[in-house]
Amino acid sequence: MGSEACRAVEQAPDLELVARVDREDDLAAITRAGAQVMVDFSIPGATKDNVLWAIENGVHAVVGATGWDETSLEEVRTALARAGREQLGVLIAPNFAIGAVLAMRFAEIAARYYESAEVIEMHHPDKLDAPSGTANHTAAAIARGRAAGGLGPVPDATEKDPLGARGAVVDGIHVHAVRQRGLVAHEVVQFGGAGEQFQLRHDSFDRVSFMPGVLVGVREVASHPGLTVGLDGYLELG
Predict the structure, then answer these.
(1) 198-224 residue pLDDT tens
(2) How far apart are CA 200 and CA 134, in angstroms?
(3) 3-state secondary structure of 168
(4) DSSP code of residue 188
(5) Which residues face 168 on adjacent strands?
(6) Catalytic annotation, pick one of 48, 123, 174, 176
């Protein structure tokens, strides 16, 4: 992802790539190069420290690394306020594919109309976290939609599941994670009502699919001060 992001920035006529930083490199190379925006596609164990460093050094951050939870996000908000960096922009996006962002928005809209909803996310076996950030974000969107529609808990009569076959539960929505060689990033959202099923599906077959969203983030982050979670915050989705 880092290599693809560098390539995308290099090919964009209105952007300039001024530094590449790998896991063993000094982050100070970013400020020495005069970078205005840092793009982080590191690992869960490093990404929060990278973002806090960017805030301390006055660099906007566009983040695609996984492993963020509400506690970590609150640390970012606190760091922005403590450092007097309220005008600094930080975008943390679980998915940069435009289709995936649209699918999450459509899922929130559809959720109010269906009694049942579940999420199946499918990724390559080298992915470090499960469920994916996209699946968590989607489940949260579905929960918001259900609340707006006045729906209660998703019906499920399961009483015994010693092996966890029903998957994780995120904001009341069951989420199932598949890890399989040959996959990149895929998600299916299933809605069920009396006599019908409605599915939303998004497939990324190549990491290049994420680059248009990354470029949106790089171009827009300075215009969106504070912390934004999800690329949908930069798009006019209504």
Answers:
(1) 999 999 999 999 999 999 999 999 999
(2) 14
(3) strand
(4) E
(5) 175
(6) 123
Q: Pick the catalytic residue: 48, 60, 124, 127?
A: 127
What are the pLDDT digits (tens) for 105-119?
A: 999 999 999 999 999
Is 127 known to be catalytic? yes
What is the Cβ-side half-sphere exposure of residue 17, based on CA atoms within 13 angstroms? Answer: 15
Cα(212)–Cα(233) distance, integer angstroms: 15
Q: What is the mean pLDDT of the chain?
A: 93
- The token pair at 158 is 């399961």
Q: Six-digit token pair at 169?
A: 């539960």
Whole-angstrom Cα distance, residue 218 to residue 39? Answer: 8
Structure tokens at 148: 């707006």
